[in-house]
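@here heads up, posting the sequence + SMILES for the zinc ion run so it's all in one place. Ping me if the SMILES looks off, I pulled it from an old spreadsheet.
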Amino acid sequence: MKRCLKCGHLLQPIIPPAGNLRFLSCTNPNCDYVISEPFKSPHYDLLPVPYDEVIKVIENERREAEKNTVIIGQARLTEVYPSKDRTVTVAKLQARIKQEYTLRPYDSVYYGKIIGVVSEQTKNYLTLLFDRSKDLPKEAPLKIAEPVILYDSAATILQEKSKRDGQHLSLFVQIPGVNPPKPIEKTKNVITVKEYDLDPEKQSIVQEIITMPQWDYRAIEGPPGTGKTTTIAVAAIEAVEKGATVLITSHTNVAVDNALEKIFFLRRDLKDQIVRIGHPAKISKIIRQFIDTPSPHEGYRKWLKRILLTKRIIGMTIAKLSVCDNVYGLNVSSKETGRWPTFDYVFIDESSTVPLCTSIIPIYYSRQWVIFGDTRQLPPIVRSLHKYAGAWSLMELAATNPQKIRMLTIQRRGNKKIFEAISKLFYQGKLNHHQTVTNSFLNVSISTNGWLKEALEPVNPLIWVQIDNGYMDWCKVKKGRIEGASGANPLEAAAAIKIYGTILNSGIPSSDIAIITTYRAQANLIREVIKELKKTEEPIVASLYHYRKGQEPNEEYEPEDPENLLDLRLAETVDSFQGREKDLVIYSITTHYEHKALLDYRRTNVAFTRARSKLIILSSLQSATKTPWLKYLKQTSHFIKINENALQPELGKVNEKHQKICRR
Ligand SMILES: [Zn+2]
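bot reply: prediction finished. Complex structure tokens:
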């Protein structure tokens, strides 16, 4: 038995382990000592993976995705015009949408057969952004649909691979009979990475990536704020300088854009080498200039060939890659240009969120693999069948070989006090803090007195607001055809709204603040009330989980899509540079008991590490015995206790709204 280093009491392991960490906390209730140690499921040593375990997950995910296709209403075109920067078509539609569906900016909607992206929804109107090349019907049904092509593409590739590998799926292997393509003419000699002002740690990682042998991989762990994007960008630039063709991919558009923006920022002269494939409305404004689409009469195959012959840095999501594979014939186009595998390097970002079953698509198309991720943040989203290897994250599988893992350890994102706690809790103290961030405090002065002033005092970066008698209600929410329960906590909502209003009045713009909740219903409640109060700008609100289905103890959670969670941008400003981190993050735990959704620390880690200067945790929790990281934060934060009297008049508004939107 291990003992507490602070008080000598016994340490107690929390069972079951929270994802990939096992936490031990002190049995002395007055002591805040907590440590965590890596916990590896025995499964993770299995590479290659049995074919069955992957195909089962693919089939299941495909079925679930299909279920989610549903007609949500009918719409009629009233106005069409090009956006100011002429990159997309803006369409105003008169729309009747069934009451139970709320669309949010960035949601994808089919108008007839054409996919559009939501920009705004009002009572009778819907504004959608379309690809400029599309002709829109006058009237059509509105559908929400999840793509199934991703799974079709993965299944085909898996079959192809199984011919070679037998009943086991090997991930990182040389394709027999494939010779490396003819080396491309070097654009110039490899320049020293010192030019980019990298610290020695990143320099050595970049050096290793660009000198690694063919048919090999590296897994780079990048905790929050440690410069993952910069590392990807510099390594990609250097690979291109060597003459390589590079695919930059991820689950999310934001991740792809961030890497491309960084490349463009570091090396404007490479702009003719960059291409971005994807829906313009989901792509950052800076990167839209790199979008390429087939010219009239060109056809997809020719278009892909043209791209492969003229571009070296290609950015698209894994979903789009699957469309190129399954619909546009990337396989054939590549072979026709004499390039197979198509890409020399693939950089897969956020690969801890990418399940093995879909990551085989980018792996198949490349022969040097660079895998970026953080297994202490978001796990992959798969709807069930977690026991099968196809559902595990690429990063976790790739990181099973210690010789291939490297870790970035210097964080430059946020205040030292916040990140020290994060490092201790989740990274075994391995994070170092760059001198530029140790003293980043929220620059605000509040004139009112009381708990708000105390909470917003710049010298306290970490705040815990304990709310007396706060409670969570389960409300019904819908996603596609599936209805589930989601939680809302009126007192915490009122507290979040009060803090938000106060800070806006002090002159801090809403784009510097994010409100993150555990459940979608709480996010909806907060957003709706702020909208109604109208005196403030539209807030940035995100949630970690969408809904739960089933009853305890076997209930399942539908996690929020990482695009919704990580993409803390404002609807109108699509520039991702100011993106995912905010000066102030308000996190509403929402539940008043240690509900199952809290027990995996990884999503909460994402919420905490969005904060640069201040993190305010709103809590109604009465105990934290199964979540020792929360217990630790409660004891190390500046602690404030309030009750409902401190929350008027906002609480009145919240209760009214809560009654309305929370159908029991
Ligand atoms: Zn102790």
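MO: Residues 4, 6-7, 9, 26, 28, 31, 33 surround zinc ion (CB under 6 Å).
MO: One more: Residues 184-190, 570-578 have pLDDT under 50 and may be disordered.
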